[in-house]
Design a protein that fits this description.
The complex is a heterodimer of chains A (about 120) and B (about 110). Chain A has no helices and twelve strands. Chain A has about 120 residues and is mainly β. Chain A is globular and about 40 Å long. In chain B, strands 2, 5, 6, 10, 11 and 12 form a six-stranded mixed sheet that branches. A four-stranded antiparallel sheet of chain B has the order 3-9-8-7, with no helix packed on it. In chain B, strands 1-4 form a two-stranded antiparallel sheet. Classes of the chains: A mainly beta (about 120), B mainly beta (about 110). At the A-B interface, strand 5, strand 6, strand 10 and strand 11 of A face strand 5, strand 6, strand 10 and strand 11 of B.
Chain lengths: ~120, ~110
């Protein structure tokens, strides 16, 4: 089975702190994602990455950055945490099949169990 | 841009009764469609997916969904609900050129005895 592991399940941080959320997948997936989930808003994409050292902004990147130095690891960084970043954060990964840059594979996206972040 | 609508925020169903959760999408071409389930405090688990072919898709835990292009819908069904099905259900769409998913706002299913 695909395993997407988010190392911190519950965090409480103070306003202005720098926060790192770590995600590791064990299936050699090319694609990794960070979503945040809020009641009534569903899941919204923050950033995603198609390859090592590559990153693309999602729908709500403001206040966040990411790092992908190794294929299996994708980190979400809150440079200066604010109370409106209190949320559940979900990491996900997927594989790209096919040749070359063809990503039209329809592969499934697998999710981690989430990290609950409270900023006080 | 594609979007997903789940018109029901909450649904309550009696145990043993049938279930249908609605999902409508907006996308110009044939999308890839997914249903995920989330138990309290947990991540998302894939129930089923539609990419092409047979429009009736079978998933895990006895769930099925039907893709109806004319109605831009991908409704989730289960003939007999169990108490353990109480959870939040998310419909999602992905276009054929990219990997990222766009989610609906979710439907919370409550199961009454």
């Amino acid at each position: 089975d695909v395993k997407v592991t988010q190392s911190s399940r519950y965090l409480v941080k103070r306003t202005g702190e720098k926060v790192f959320l770590e995600c590791v997948q064990d299936m050699d997936h090319e694609n990794m994602f960070w979503y945040r989930q809020d009641p009534g808003l569903g899941l919204r994409l923050i950033y995603f990455s198609y390859d090592v050292k590559m990153k693309e902004k999602g729908d709500i990147p403001e206040g966040y950055s990411v790092s992908r130095e190794k294929k299996e690891r994708f980190s979400l960084i809150l440079e200066s945490a604010s109370t409106n970043q209190t949320s559940m954060y979900l990491c996900a990964s997927s594989s790209t099949s096919g040749q070359g840059s063809n990503i039209d594979s329809g592969n499934t996206i697998y999710f981690g169990e989430g990290s609950w972040l409270t900023v006080v | 841009a594609q979007s997903v609508t789940q018109p029901d925020i909450h649904i309550t169903v009696s145990e043993g009764a049938s279930l249908e959760l609605r999902c409508n999408y907006s996308y110009g071409a044939t999308p890839y469609l997914f249903w995920y389930v989330q138990s309290p405090g947990q991540g998302l688990q894939l129930l089923l997916k539609y990419f092409s072919g047979d429009t009736l898709v079978q998933g895990i835990k006895g769930f099925e969904a039907e893709f109806k292009r004319s109605q831009s819908s991908f409704n989730l069904r289960k003939p007999s609900v169990h108490w353990s099905d109480a959870a939040e259900y998310f419909c999602a769409v992905r276009n054929t050129g990219f990997q990222k998913l766009v989610f609906g706002t979710g439907t919370r299913l409550l199961v009454s005895p």
